Amino acid sequence: MLDSTRLNPAEEIVLGRDFMTLSQHVLSQVGTFSPAAYDLSALMGRIGLAGKTIARHLSRAGLVENVLGVTGEVNVQGEAVKNMDRYANRVFLRAFEQSGLVCRLASEEMEKPYYIPENCPIGRYTLLYDPIDGSSNIDVNLAIGSIFSIRQQEGNDESGEALDLLQAGRKQIGAGYILYGTSTMLVYSLGKGVHAFTLDPSIGEFILSQENIHMPTKGSIYSVNEGNFWQWQEPMREYVRHMHSQAGNTARYSGALVADIHRILFQGGIFLYPGTVGHEDGKLRLLYESAPLAFLIEQAGGRATTGTQEILDVIPDRLHTRTPLIIGSVENVKEVESFLI
């Protein structure tokens, strides 16, 4: 007589994976059941909650008001604020209010950090984030993302200067992104590898879909906005000419940093956002974009540099410091550097 309670090996693997939620995985990564471990698990759960809320709102774009289009405002970066920028920023703030997990949140949409005084006596962490990356893609229904960085809370500076955040990216204790595409995915690292989760809308949970991701050491994809070609320094132009001359190279650029990094993480290659004439520091924000993604890519076996310095070694001089970014597979980054010498 067959035992209906037993599963074959393939079914056991799938079932085990299907039951590994984001919060469970964080606890397994930390390796203890201490209060600090549960706080990290809860923090990642709140990030996941923000991602699920944003994904649901995006799924109704075009059907409800204030999803598409601009607000008419300009943010601290001097950029037009999209309705989704403002909504997503508010979602992250609301997700952490009264959570007891973070003392403050810092976003590229806010001039200064947002303090939660009632959390500060017990909140161990600061969350830095880009609520919506790739805003130009929203109104045409292309992939966009959110980027996050977790740092240990240091001090209790409520002046808004947040000087303790002006430290190298190696001070991060975790980082990741949420990709809103054909499915919603959350990719994160706590310094013990890179792990991907896919949102199952039927149960409302992020479920482990790939663990310990290792990116290829070299890839054929290069991702860069070639519309800026004549604004780059000559060494960067020469590198792109070199890529044009080599058979097998493939250009892929989506206009959303998260989407391009996600492709390179799994398929290998290089993403570039160099400085331009008059904007030598480039466009990307160090604390909210470059450093978290560099943390993630290094954990997956890749590299990230400004062209002269490892991204995770760059010390910002202000909260919204910008930096050039060369990030991807080790051999591809090395090849770009050979043109910059």
From TrEMBL:
<feature type="domain" description="Fructose-1-6-bisphosphatase class 1 C-terminal">
    <location>
        <begin position="215"/>
        <end position="339"/>
    </location>
</feature>
<dbReference type="Pfam" id="PF00316">
    <property type="entry name" value="FBPase"/>
</dbReference>
<dbReference type="InterPro" id="IPR020548">
    <property type="entry name" value="Fructose_bisphosphatase_AS"/>
</dbReference>
<feature type="binding site">
    <location>
        <position position="225"/>
    </location>
    <ligand>
        <name>substrate</name>
    </ligand>
</feature>
<feature type="binding site">
    <location>
        <position position="130"/>
    </location>
    <ligand>
        <name>Mg(2+) 2</name>
    </ligand>
</feature>
<dbReference type="InterPro" id="IPR000146">
    <property type="entry name" value="FBPase_class-1"/>
</dbReference>
<keyword id="KW-0963">Cytoplasm</keyword>
<feature type="binding site">
    <location>
        <position position="133"/>
    </location>
    <ligand>
        <name>Mg(2+) 2</name>
    </ligand>
</feature>
<feature type="binding site">
    <location>
        <position position="289"/>
    </location>
    <ligand>
        <name>Mg(2+) 2</name>
    </ligand>
</feature>
<feature type="binding site">
    <location>
        <position position="283"/>
    </location>
    <ligand>
        <name>substrate</name>
    </ligand>
</feature>
<dbReference type="InterPro" id="IPR028343">
    <property type="entry name" value="FBPtase"/>
</dbReference>
<feature type="binding site">
    <location>
        <position position="132"/>
    </location>
    <ligand>
        <name>Mg(2+) 1</name>
    </ligand>
</feature>
<dbReference type="Pfam" id="PF18913">
    <property type="entry name" value="FBPase_C"/>
</dbReference>
<feature type="binding site">
    <location>
        <position position="253"/>
    </location>
    <ligand>
        <name>substrate</name>
    </ligand>
</feature>
<dbReference type="InterPro" id="IPR033391">
    <property type="entry name" value="FBPase_N"/>
</dbReference>
<comment type="subunit">
    <text>Homotetramer.</text>
</comment>
<comment type="similarity">
    <text>Belongs to the FBPase class 1 family.</text>
</comment>
<dbReference type="InterPro" id="IPR044015">
    <property type="entry name" value="FBPase_C_dom"/>
</dbReference>
<protein>
    <recommendedName>
        <fullName>Fructose-1,6-bisphosphatase class 1</fullName>
        <ecNumber>3.1.3.11</ecNumber>
    </recommendedName>
</protein>
<feature type="binding site">
    <location>
        <position position="108"/>
    </location>
    <ligand>
        <name>Mg(2+) 1</name>
    </ligand>
</feature>
<feature type="binding site">
    <location>
        <begin position="133"/>
        <end position="136"/>
    </location>
    <ligand>
        <name>substrate</name>
    </ligand>
</feature>
<feature type="binding site">
    <location>
        <position position="130"/>
    </location>
    <ligand>
        <name>Mg(2+) 1</name>
    </ligand>
</feature>
<keyword id="KW-0113">Calvin cycle</keyword>
<keyword id="KW-0378">Hydrolase</keyword>
<feature type="domain" description="Fructose-1-6-bisphosphatase class I N-terminal">
    <location>
        <begin position="20"/>
        <end position="211"/>
    </location>
</feature>
<comment type="pathway">
    <text>Carbohydrate biosynthesis; Calvin cycle.</text>
</comment>
<keyword id="KW-0460">Magnesium</keyword>
<keyword id="KW-0119">Carbohydrate metabolism</keyword>
<dbReference type="GO" id="GO:0042132">
    <property type="term" value="F:fructose 1,6-bisphosphate 1-phosphatase activity"/>
</dbReference>
<keyword id="KW-0479">Metal-binding</keyword>
